[in-house]
Amino acid sequence: MSIVSCVTVTVPATTANLGPGFDCIGAALTLYNEFKFTRLDKGGVIISVTGAEAEKVKTDESNLVYQAFVTFYQHLQQTPPSVKIEIKMGVPLARGLGSSATAIVGGLVGANLLAGEPLSQSQVMELAIAIEGHPDNVVPALLGGCRLAATTDTAWEICDIPWHNQVVPVVAIPDFELSTKEARGVLSNQVSRADAIFNTAHLGLLLRGLETANSNWLKAALQDKLHQPYRKVLIPGYDAVNSAALSKGAYGMVISGAGPTLLALTDELHSQAVATAMAAAWKLEGVTAIMRSLSLDTQGAISTTQG
């Protein structure tokens, strides 16, 4: 077996929950982080970061990419090799677009390739879920597409969710951060039977709406009662941006992951108008936002190696 000396892993951003699919559904988007791992003879770890918000990324052993890299070798009960990690940032931090999931998946995939691929993709996935704590971001980041994850007594079952090419995700990325810890802190510890039934029905409708691009189904399906009513109070201008998106033809708007990025689903005809309206509405609230009309990434984490 030839020894791999250099690995480059490109991992897509993700949007989790999609309204009613709290902590169980996520989709990969065409926005990326890139991680390059080069084996060193000695020296521990050297980390460099370029791209948007690079100055916010830690470059010592606490870096999440390196933490995942080390966890992989600990899982094998091996000492991690000395490595240089070069990170190119394209996914904004702490915005609800799965930046931490890209780091975890990038670190694990890079480590697996440098080690000669002792773990299968499903084993890498299970390790990623264990590190992240839930599957909704790391699974689509690794596998691509839109994925529904459900646990059994012994393993995870992952279901590929068909996504019609006429359903266009538009993201509004604001100039402020929101930590996942804070976003989880506002959630209720209990839900009523009525709210549980509501979300179960709407998640089922969402799956069919994404598959068929049925506008009526999507407009109803994106509603949620488990997390968004609590979290939207942490996002200034949420209601104004939502109204703006709907007025220009969006099927609906949801909080991307834990937020504060807001995600509208629409069609190609209305995507630019929806993006412009969302940005304008947020600007009136004193928030500057970057708008992106994206697509579903269907490849997930992709890698190249050098001997």
Automatic annotation (TrEMBL):
Entry keyword annotation includes Transferase: yes
Cellular location(s): Cytoplasm
Binding, ATP: 92-102
GHMP kinase C-terminal domain location: 218-283
Keywords tagged on the record: Amino-acid biosynthesis, ATP-binding, Cytoplasm, Kinase, Nucleotide-binding, Threonine biosynthesis, Transferase
EC number(s) stated in the UniProt entry for this protein: 2.7.1.39
Catalytically driven reaction(s): L-homoserine + ATP = O-phospho-L-homoserine + ADP + H(+)
Listed GO MF terms: homoserine kinase activity
Pfam families per UniProt: GHMP_kinases_C (PF08544), GHMP_kinases_N (PF00288)
Primary location: cytoplasm
NCBIfam families on file: PRK01212.1-4, thrB
UniProt family annotation: Belongs to the GHMP kinase family. Homoserine kinase subfamily.
Name of the protein in question: Homoserine kinase
Species, as recorded: Scytonema hofmannii FACHB-248
Taxonomic path: Bacteria, Bacillati, Cyanobacteriota, Cyanophyceae, Nostocales
